Amino acid sequence: MLKGIHHVAIICSDYPRSKAFYTQILGLKIIAENYREIRDSYKLDLALPDGSQIELFSFNGAPQRPSFPEAQGLRHLAFKVDDINQVVQHLQQQGVEVEHIRVDEYTNKQYTFFSDPDGLPLELYQTA
Predict the structure, then answer these.
(1) Do 49 and 4 share a structural domain?
(2) CATH number assigned to the domain comprising residue 7
(3) Do 85 and 47 have their domain in common?
(4) Cα–Cα distance for residue pair 63/71, rounded to 1 Å
(5) Is residue 67 part of a domain?
(6) Can you tell me the mean pLDDT for 74-80?
């Protein structure tokens, strides 16, 4: 049966900009980077500390995905953090706009949202 999330795949509009965002701002480690000549596309495998991964793709001419108003389908990608205030401060220092921190009414855990360079909604969820 299912054991967890192995990876989440993201198609970006500006590969160098998104690569910098996920590696330099979010601090994800590069596992592998490959240019696929037949597709004129990059595939960047990024590691999170828990072993899960993000695959970042570039595809020429990929259409934009609607985020607002929220469309059916995958709603957002949430990252576990120990200290949400510290991560929010880091993101803001890097020029990333972050929504105000809220408290989940069911778990009493703090969370907030921000976006990647293509407007993909990302969440920080404090687990500690």
Answers:
(1) yes
(2) 3.10.180.10
(3) no
(4) 15
(5) no
(6) 90
Beta bridge partners of 81: 126
**Domain end call among 19, 34, 61:** 61
**Mean pLDDT of the 81-104 span:** 97
The 10 Å Cβ neighbour count of residue 21 is: 21
Residue 26 half-sphere exposure toward CB, CA atoms < 13 A = 27
Task: Tell me which residue of 74, 62, 77 sits closest to 12, measured CA to CA.
Answer: 62
| 77 or 4, greater pLDDT | 77
Count Cα atoms within 13 angstroms, Cβ side, for 24: 11
**Same domain? 47 vs 2:** yes
Taking residues 36-43, what's their average pLDDT?
93
pLDDT band at 8 (very low <50, low <70, confident <90, very high): very high
Is there a single domain that holds both residue 54 and residue 79? Answer: no
Residue 126, domain extent: 75-128
Cis ω before 66 (30° cut-off from 0): no
The distance of Cα 108 from the centroid of its chain, to the nearest Å, equals 23
Are 10 and 54 in contact by the 8 Å Cβ rule? The answer is yes
